[in-house]
């Protein structure tokens, strides 16, 4: 098979199609996958393994391919265990099927050798994460297969957390992400929930609304990104009862991000966000944060990916604008990549999409249908609550900046429709997640 055929199988991953590959073609396809991940491969002369995987001159893995629809037994594990190579370097057995209990038992017996089993679903996860993270022939750092095993460990830890993380995201600007994040925080707080708002957007509009324009912000997310502060050190009270914030600043755009450990930073943020120094922060008094709501910038870069890696739920605001279609496609593809990375059914779930700036004109209805059609094809739920176009939304945001903490006003107690709509949206979110 030629490279174009492998490219098609990579771009449209299908385990049933992979099952049908001969051993030689399967091995060639694995080499292609590692190539797309930024690694080089060489055939291994020792019969215990098929491939050596390298990053530059450094050997990062030994691989044995076993294309098998059923369950692979312990024999390939014993073969990998028998090769005399550096014990610190991972040894992978990759199959399109799965592994028998005897294979897992044998791996446990040889735990010092760092042998790992990659079944069909895990291999597909790897492909999905690569395709949503790194374009073909990119010069960006390689993505090791080992990252999925690290992600599995983090997902297991996160699964024990009671705090719910909701991320508001869209690649398109001007769709109401910040307004939505602010009103969701406020709506949850009105119900007595403790909420932590995180502002990942260098425009810092959510920070302004929660802390007011005259408030001095000495510490912000940039200090965490550059590893100068822990997340817990950044938590501050907002002007609203039950709401705290980890602020942003325009200087966040200048934060240095080391691309060499990008995926590890995604995992680290997700794990550190749900540590007790954040979830049980002294600023909220007794108890813990019930919800963390994250506002994201209008791109699918590092900040948004970190937020998605930490998410239980993702909410997608959509404006009735035909130009939103590309942004919608980008957010769906990025969510799929992070879902593959985290690999947990309880995390990075798309709660749904909803319409902002809504009116009932025929032109708006036509635009809405054009925007939501790609989402329907991906089985993304369209929430029942649209946010009607309302000048009071902007007035409410402006006033939230001006007011002092002890005079923080009721965002929902305004003339117009948006307050009522956001109240209903919060109720729909809570009904969806079945959270008391």
Structure description:
- The protein is of the alpha/beta class and 436 residues long.
- The protein has two domains: 3-144, Trna Endonuclease, Chain: A, domain 1; 155-433, P-loop containing nucleotide triphosphate hydrolases (Rossmann fold).
- 42% of the residues lie in helices and 14% in strands.
- The protein contains 17 helices and 14 strands.
- The strands form three sheets. A seven-stranded mixed beta sheet has the order 10-11-9-12-8-13-14, sandwiched between helices. Strands 1-2-3-5-7 form a five-stranded mixed beta sheet, with helices on both faces.
- A hairpin with a 7-residue loop joins strand 1 and strand 2 (51-55).
- Helix 8 runs parallel beside helix 9 (205-211).
- The radius of gyration is 24 Å and the shape is elongated.
- The mean pLDDT is 90.
Write the layout of secondary structure elements.
Blueprint: H1 3-11, H2 15-19, H3 23-36, E1 40-43, E2 51-55, E3 58-65, E4 71-72, H4 75-81, E5 91-94, E6 98-99, H5 101-109, E7 115-118, H6 120-131, H7 146-158, E8 164-168, H8 177-190, E9 195-199, H9 205-211, H10 221-225, E10 236-237, E11 243-246, H11 262-273, H12 276-279, E12 291-295, H13 302-310, E13 313-318, H14 324-342, E14 349-355, H15 362-377, H16 391-402, H17 418-433
Parallel strand pairs: 3-5, 4-6, 5-7, 8-12, 8-13, 9-11, 9-12, 13-14
Antiparallel strand pairs: 1-2, 2-3, 10-11
Helix pairs in contact: 1-3, 6-14, 7-11, 8-9, 8-17, 9-16, 11-13, 14-15
CATH architecture of the largest domain: 3-Layer(aba) Sandwich
Which class of the largest domain in CATH terms? Alpha Beta
CATH topology of the largest domain: Rossmann fold
Number of helices: 17
Strand content: 5-15%
